[in-house]
Amino acid sequence: MFNEQLSKVARLSPDDEKYVSLVLFDEVEKAHPKLWNLLLGILEDGVLVLGNNEEVDFTRSIIVLTTNVGSRSMGIHLSTEGIGFQGGFETDQVDRDLDEAAQREARKIFPYEFLNRFDELITYQTLKEDHLYRILENLVSNLHIRSIDCTEPFLLQLQQSAKDELVRVGTDPKFGARPLQRALEAHLVTPLSHLICSGQIRRGDLVTVEYSDGEFLFEKEAGSMTAAEIAQFEALREQRERSRDLDGIDDGGEANRIVDEVHDVSAESDRYLQTTHGFDE
């Protein structure tokens, strides 16, 4: 489970002699209680003694444990609150109630001496409307990169009306951001895939998406990308294909460099849309 390489999980300092490791135990409530007892020594003394009496040093480690304990009671609480983005909704009070419910359930499952070893117990708060819009921007950015990184590259632009509707249908505080991702897949990715397969979207097109009269509307403007831009996208796509063979290998940062180049081209496309076509991101 532990070895010399894994003990230095992620260096946060460039100095090899001074590093900080981040150790994550996910869904720790599913582990055997003996593991909890094992963690007591790590959290107290910062040292793990293995069966052969070798010691693993955790004194320069940040240990994070996640758990779903309390999720059921929190879900029931959210259902009874009728949560949403309507007027009069006391989000701060709901977050405090959820925190109390989670802490109460945690004390039922974990021993007090175990919980007392942590510097802080953090409860994830509900996603607010501005959080969902920021998450949507990240999802749309990834979709934009996919659109220019395919064999038939095209530009994609979402109007504010489409973003508003995606956030509306993708809001479910009990399930976090996943409903928003499913809404994007259902209302954007799937229709775009059908348009590409049917040949209605071709390389170099500009596709604008807006929401009007209860439906998402897709408008195409042909020939918005120059031949030089298309050639640049194709060259980057070929580089990314080669970089996929480098997964798990120390490539000297080549894979990260290629990803950065794709992001740079995507940013240039956004500026092109704003200056040439006047679309608002």
The number of helical elements comes to: 9
General shape: flat
CATH class of the domain at 129-277, please?
Mainly Alpha
What percent of residues are in strands? Answer: 5-15%
User: How much helix, percentage-wise, in residues?
Assistant: 40-55%
- How many E-type strands? 7
Order of helices and strands: EHEEEHHHHEHHEEHH
Biggest sheet, spatial arrangement of strands = 5-6-7
The name of the CATH architecture of the domain at 129-277 is Orthogonal Bundle
How would a crystallographer describe the biggest sheet?
3 strands, mixed
Mean pLDDT: 77
Give the low-pLDDT segments: 1-12, 82-89, 277-281
What is the radius of gyration? 24 Å
The chain-level structural class is alpha/beta
Tell me the span between the first and last alpha carbons. 47 Å
